Amino acid sequence: MTPTQVTARVTYRIVPVKHWARWIAAIATAAVLAWIVASFAGAQIDWPTVGEYFTFPAIVSGMGITVVLTAVSMLIGIALGVLVAVMRLSSNPVVSGIAWIYVWFFRGTPVYLQLLLWFNIALVFPVVGIPGLIEGRTVDIVSPFVAAILGLGLNQGAYTSEVVRAGILSVDEGQGEAAKALGLPGTDIMRTVVLPQAMRVILPPIGNETIGMLKTTSLASAIGASEVLNEAQHVYLVNNMIMELLIASGIWYLLAVSVLSVIQYYVERRFAKGSSSKALPLTPWQKVVWFFTSRRSVA
Amino acid sequence: MSIQPLVQLENIVKNFGPNEVLKGVDLEVNSGEVVCILGPSGSGKSTLLRCINFIEQPTSGLVFVGDEVIGHRRTQDPEVLQQVHENAIARQRSEIGMVFQRFNLFPHMTVLENITHAPRLVRGHSAAVANEAAMALLQKVGLADRATAYPRQLSGGQQQRVAIARALAMEPRLMLFDEPTSALDPELVGEVLKVMQELAAGGLTMIVVTHEIGFAREVADRVVFMDGGVIVEQGSPAEVIDNPQNPRTRAFLSRVLK
Fold this sequence. Notes:
The structure holds 2 protein chains of 2 kinds.
Chain A: H1 20-42, H2 47-54, H3 57-88, H4 93-108, H5 111-119, E1 127-130, E2 134-137, H6 138-141, H7 144-170, H8 173-181, H9 186-216, H10 228-239, H11 242-270, H12 284-298
Antiparallel strand pairs in A: 1-2
Helix pairs in contact in A: 2-11, 3-4, 3-7, 3-9, 3-10, 4-7, 5-7, 7-9, 8-9, 9-11, 10-11
Chain B: E1 7-16, E2 19-29, E3 34-38, H1 45-52, E4 60-65, E5 68-69, E6 72-74, E7 81-83, H2 86-93, E8 96-99, H3 111-122, H4 127-140, H5 156-168, E9 174-178, H6 186-201, E10 206-209, H7 213-219, E11 222-227, E12 230-235, H8 237-240, H9 247-256
Parallel strand pairs in B: 3-10, 3-11, 8-9, 9-10
Antiparallel strand pairs in B: 1-2, 1-4, 4-5, 6-7, 11-12
Helix pairs in contact in B: 3-4, 3-5, 4-5, 5-6
């Protein structure tokens, strides 16, 4: 049977959706950006000077101090955070009480105040050390740098402990029970079974807080620690190149944060092991490699 | 001449707050015996099992396993028992294997690492010794080819067989199974029961909380029926399953044997 009449198929023309809102948003954004750029260009900013100060020895060494302060404070913060979180969850009421008071105090007061407190600690403890063995005047030992590390590290510890505690509580109870049933002692259960699994929950906020710490170290300029912002201030108080120095320091911060973001990405990836039945997604770099190699194999 | 039973539970009581889950349970299990505990949900059978290795500490009552009094240490005075710290209980637990309803494999470790973890940490075995023993156990449960897989990559039945191998790696004198097939898809139940049946045939002492009446009838030396926190009836499978005396046992079996 042949159809007597075949209806001609209509060839439709597809009209895409018009994204009016996107256009309006883009134009508005471009206008604001242009205004900001014009303002900076028109302001009394000597751009070659910004470049000069970017590599100025005092600024570079200040950035070095900033990075060291960040790293050491975070290491102290993480070590303390894990310790305090485990203490908080202890069945021993004295131990968990101490942990609670620590978090209460160091989370309950501004980090700026804590920095000043450590810087002036000699007023309370004029001498530190083990009596008869090693002793020293506190003013000699607690330099601005040491005070900054104590202030930032102890403050960070209080915050990190809450992050770690949340991570520990996120691990399925059956994991601890299975490890217990195998006869593992409590410390081994925490170290080898619970904490590695808690890492997946702990790491993203820790990465976030490391990036936060990098910038919080600038508060240490208030107690005279020679980090990058303090160095910038020292210079611009003499030569009045305020914007130039702030921009140069800002670029350094952005650079360091960008590097930390990349590190964060790979560390989180590393701890995702075994958590999903799916294969890990390709890293941006692997995607680039894949893009080129797969093209070549086709050709 | 009477033989000392391997496991002896004396008047085990367990309260969760005002809720009395176990109301004084006595049970003896001989070496090499396979005991299946049946009962409706909420009857306290899983809690009883968890009291044996002190994953759940009984509110009162004593658990004897071999020469040990779990959670306690004998003293000079034969009438005094000293309670011990968690690490000493851990040592006692290492002699008792346990398999859970939801497998509880360590997801961040491979199959092989799951099995060798406790022998290496608790017994101090070298990697080589632990790996060799683990591979032999994987052979036994039919998963030698999955040693490098992560738990997520395995089916439920495979995970549970790895969990059994993990418990066996500690060479326990007693194995506790807490509803080992309840979380499995029906077609995967058989492979786990087969492994358990082989263990039973090998002379391992096993206490199994289960809903698998067929397994209990075929493999158990003794069936214990629990309800309301007490043992209602116990005896051979033929007695308890096929000819129950207690009306509560009868009611339960008529519901599950449909």
